[in-house]
Amino acid sequence: MADLQDLCNTLQALANSGESAKVSYYYVGDDGVALRNGAILVDHGVRAHIDHAQLDASAAIDAIAALKLVKVASLQMSEVRPAAHMASVDLSQLISDLRERLRRASSPPPAPVATPVAASATASAPSPDPGSTAQFVAILAAPGIELRTEALRLLEPLFGVSATRKIDEFARIHPPAERPQEFLLQCQQHVSVMLGASKAEALFRPLYDRLESERLHRRG
Q1: In this structure, which of 89, 132, 156, 160 has its CB flanked by the most CB atoms within 10 Å?
Q2: What is the pLDDT of residue 115?
Q3: Sheet containing 35-43: which strands, arranged edge to edge?
Q4: What's the pLDDT at 105?
Q5: CA dist 102 to 57, 67, 120, 140, 148, Å?
Q6: Neighbours of 201 (CB within 10 A)
Q7: Cβ contact 73:11 at 8 Å
Q8: pLDDT band at 194 (very low <50, low <70, confident <90, very high)
């Protein structure tokens, strides 16, 4: 599975080497099922010609940055011959624009403003036991740890609309709020059928790490 960073790295490598190539990127369409593709023709590491829905350069860059990429492939060419409908832009500018959109997407959202709690309500609220299930449920309810959403984000590019059905099935067997580790493991095993065990483990490792980090933070 690829992402926008992989596309940027591929384009940057061509800019560094001064080579010409056709860079194809594959992504899941709006219907969540069909696999579509677009292309960027790189001319001697200097100029880029974008073939994406016949959009102009700015609109094409915005559209590419929002895609759910699945794969990026590069085919070296001795020369490129762009079609008339392709948007043309300096390769360095294209890379810079894509990296800027990548930076914006990865920037954390503003911290929510805390709502004051009445002293009487605070005093009456029981303090959860650090190792209790109730505490883990509270952790999973936090905005950053919505396991169903995070798991769906990983499965959707691979399985399309059927990912939602599988997530619902796994959640019935292992409710994420009660059995987060088991829920993630079942999702991981489903992905391993397509990607292999090692890649599936690497894909889900950040979620396991986030759960462990939150658990340790709350215990501290």
Answers
A1: 89
A2: 54
A3: 69-77, 20-28, 35-43, 47-51, 87-90
A4: 81
A5: 17, 11, 45, 27, 24
A6: 14
A7: no
A8: confident
